[in-house]
Design brief:
mainly alpha; Arc Repressor Mutant, subunit A; 2 domains; 8 helices; elongated
Length: about 150
Amino acid sequence: MDAIHDVFYKISQDNSLLDNVDNIKFYLYRSLKNRLIDIVKTRKEDTMSDVSAFTENLPFNVEVNIEDLLISEEEQTAVRSKIEEMLSVLSDRQREIIYLRYVDGYDYSDISRLLGITVPSCHKLTYKSMQKLRKKFGPLILLFLIP
């Protein structure tokens, strides 16, 4: 916990550290790992000159709780069945455009090329599909489809 705190404290002191970061998750993981190595090195009485030999022997422990996995799986199954129920009220074409837009994340120009329709037609079909879903399920639909 102290190492995590140290990483975020360092970032808060110098925001320019994040200026050239492309992948924040990777940066944070690497920073934490480096900080943990520094902590372990300072606790060792003999200093190790070869960092690669030192890091090869570091333990990596992950605690997986099967109960959490089961709960997560049950929640995913419940969400999946609710989405399937919601999409069942749509026509095939409407289901396809909602899938392409909200699940695959395509923009309207890509969808128009895939479906062979114009971009304004994509907007209209998406709008009508969402209207139909809102009419049947209310604002609940936004929780399931909008990322």
